[in-house]
Amino acid sequence: MDRALRVAVIGAGPAGIYTADHLIKADPDVTVDILDKLPTPYGLIRYGVAPDHPRIKEIINALFRILDNPRIRFLGNVEYGVDVKPEELARFYDATVIATGAEKDRALDIPGIDLQGSYGAADFASWYNGHPDVSRDWPLEATEVAVIGAGNVAIDVARVLAKTADELLVTEIPDNVYQVLKQSPVTDVHLFSRRGPAQVKFTPQELRELDHSPNVEVIIHPEGIEFDEGSLQAMRDTRHIKMCVDILQNWAVRDQRDRPRRLHLYFLQAPVEVLGEDGKVVGLRTETQELTGDGWVRGTGEFTDWNVQAVYRAVGYLSTAIPDLPFDTKTGTIPHDAGRILDLDGEHIPGMYTTGWIKRGPVGLIGHTKGDAGETVTSLLGDRDKLPVASERAADDVVNYLAQRGLPYTTWEGWQKLDSHEIALGEPHGRKRVKVVPRDEMTGICNA
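-> structure tokens emitted (448 positions)
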């Protein structure tokens, strides 16, 4: 094949960026355009990870170096299936890789979960990270809050709720978020894990960050600190699990300190109902669990009602369906074979591929994402002789099309303008940056 491949990647989060990186390293002639519905790159790294994480900058620096390659082009504020239809995209690219990730909250099917005061962690994270498509306000009215989950997102949400607004002011939180958090009446955050301490999904680094606030006392309730043979085996097999257990055990036996806010961790407590009155959350009911010997749990029939006025579920992310492509609603993934998207008959749709969380589900860290992207790229390049041939192959063809449609798309150069602008907004106040939130303001700065 003589033609140099042109590939579109849909989604500018880590999965999409690593896919582009694999492509340009594997083929010296391929060029890649990364399209995203947001005006900015980085996906959940910008809009899903809590702003007080010190490692965010390291990850973004790595992604920046990839996007700065001249063979990769970023086109933001362009939504696949809305601004550009699949058949239109096929005019400009030989192959398309869907890497849209997962940004919605997975449902929790218990009574009362839809009461006023019950929220999804992903929605809350989008708010405190200044996502342009969510409300500028958030109803922080509860003094005691429950967080359901035992992963990094649950810990992020619990930490943001428990910290004072002034502690977060040095980060990149938008001003509207700071003003709401400043008025928060929260005194106690209760985090509930259905399983034991050896089955938690958060990392040791995330766990330690809970204890960094001078205003928050982390309290480990010892009733759920239990281990069975499956738990002990997990601790022997996996270093980070052993590290988490050691941290939790040390916190459980230390003397409590007198701090204005408290963050409670409970294990072996499964949520069974959100309690309501007049349509609002007034409590959470959990059932005590017992370990079954293999690290799993079963209910004991012992129930506890907790006096909370808000509930945040952090039980996982969920991808959304992509226009004109098959989608498994149960797993929240696109059916595929090693990244090749399959139609309803199990046949590969020519030129269509997928990677990241929408391919494998919302599991795994950055290392898994890189490996996943590598598998998809291997499949794509293995199919190169069978790929459809784009009819409009010049680099300017797609941007001319977007301009003719009157779409205010953003570019890599435009993002760097916005990036510099946000950093400059933060400098007089000793902050890393102040995020610009409104979409039209972002695109205006990018395209100035």
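The radius of gyration is 23 Å.
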